[in-house]
């Protein structure tokens, strides 16, 4: 998509007026796009599968259900599972809502998920506790939530999610003003503006001609550091305001952090420096990012998918949508080794379960499917050395 060339005043007007250019304008602000990308990729990068209750009391992949392939591989003819969840993440991050059309088979099972563009769906006033939807296309029927999967962000009215681009319009607009200021500053060769003065009287035509000639020779990066030759009593008086004196850098940093606060993303996640940090503090920040940003996003997606894509009978039968976030919470090899070792020694996972989780082939050893906790868990009897069925 080609982005229009729009100034910060255009962006501010679009955001405050709620015009169709609002989303594109907001994404032109680097901090907004970076935060939205962190949220979108955070939702997209983790495995998402359909599971059902197993005979042993746990859960197993429901590979024979049509929804399994929709969630893990191919939701429609032109997208992958990662691409669809990334699309959902971007829409939730900025618009607070994501709408998808759900095609179902004769048994009521979802067989295709089609993302609906921004502004193409109208939410109708609920009656008797049911929300209905209408596609903004001529002669379209009214759909129930059986055919429209509506994923809501944080909501005030419990009907639709709150749009960050509207709630934070002024903060985003100010960030755009700062980017515009920096752009104009460097276009002028990082020099502040100044005054041309003379004791002679100048007509309006002479003033305009002088300004045109001066800008042609001195304005812009290409003319930076050129020597100006003045005649006829002209004097140049520079304005004594620099980027640092106007606290331009500090203002941009603060506004970036402000957008991060609004969107719920730690500044560290968009490479915004917030001072010196040790490895331990960075690790704790990432855990905080997972706990307070990603985990609620995962739970929001899973619950919405279950109630919107599964029938009531399937939900009661033990089907569930599961996002496996262990791939990001156990990022280092040392963490994974310690985790698997502890799970085996405490009798919580078998060797094959550890191997499957690590992406390795299952072992043919019969003991690999047995729980083998450490002997000291059972005291001096020694029974801990025997596998548990």
UniProtKB/TrEMBL annotation:
<dbReference type="InterPro" id="IPR006427">
    <property type="entry name" value="Portal_HK97"/>
</dbReference>
<feature type="region of interest" description="Disordered">
    <location>
        <begin position="362"/>
        <end position="389"/>
    </location>
</feature>
<dbReference type="InterPro" id="IPR006944">
    <property type="entry name" value="Phage/GTA_portal"/>
</dbReference>
<protein>
    <submittedName>
        <fullName>HK97 family phage portal protein</fullName>
    </submittedName>
</protein>
<dbReference type="Pfam" id="PF04860">
    <property type="entry name" value="Phage_portal"/>
</dbReference>
């Amino acid at each position: 998509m080609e982005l229009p060339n729009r100034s910060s005043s255009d962006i501010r007007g679009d955001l405050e007026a709620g015009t169709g250019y609002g989303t594109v304008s907001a994404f032109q602000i680097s901090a907004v796009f970076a935060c939205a990308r962190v949220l979108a990729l955070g939702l997209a990068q983790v495995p998402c599968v359909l599971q059902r209750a197993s005979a042993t009391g746990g859960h197993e992949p429901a590979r024979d259900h049509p929804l399994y392939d929709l969630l893990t591989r191919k939701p429609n003819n032109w997208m992958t599972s990662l691409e669809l969840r990334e699309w959902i993440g971007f829409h939730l991050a900025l618009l607070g809502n994501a709408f998808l059309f759900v095609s179902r088979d004769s048994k009521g099972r979802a067989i295709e998920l089609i993302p609906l563009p921004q502004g193409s769906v109208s939410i109708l006033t609920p009656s008797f506790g049911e929300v209905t939807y209408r596609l903004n296309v001529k002669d379209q029927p009214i759909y129930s939530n059986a055919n429209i999967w509506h994923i809501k962000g944080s909501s005030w009215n419990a009907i639709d999610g709150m749009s960050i681009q509207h709630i934070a319009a002024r903060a985003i607009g100010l960030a755009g003003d700062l980017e515009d200021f920096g752009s104009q500053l460097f276009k002028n060769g990082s020099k502040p503006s100044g005054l041309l003065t003379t004791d002679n009287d100048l007509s309006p035509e002479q003033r305009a001609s002088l300004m045109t000639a001066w800008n042609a020779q001195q304005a812009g990066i290409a003319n930076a550091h050129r020597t100006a030759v003045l005649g006829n009593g002209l004097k140049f008086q520079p304005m004594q305001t620099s980027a640092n004196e106007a606290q331009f850098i500090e203002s941009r940093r603060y506004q970036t952090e402000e957008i991060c606060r609004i969107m719920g993303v730690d500044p560290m996640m968009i490479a915004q420096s917030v001072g010196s940090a040790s490895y331990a503090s960075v690790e704790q920040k990432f855990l905080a990012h997972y706990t307070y940003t990603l985990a609620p996003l995962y739970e929001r997606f899973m619950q919405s998918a279950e109630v919107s894509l599964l029938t009531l009978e399937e939900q009661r039968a033990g089907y569930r949508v599961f996002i496996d976030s262990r791939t990001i919470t156990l990022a280092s090899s040392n963490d994974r080794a310690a985790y698997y070792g502890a799970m085996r020694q405490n009798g919580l996972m078998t060797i094959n379960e550890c191997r499957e989780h690590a992406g390795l082939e299952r072992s043919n050893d019969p003991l690999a499917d047995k729980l083998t906790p450490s002997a000291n868990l059972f005291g001096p009897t020694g029974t801990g050395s025997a596998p548990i069925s």
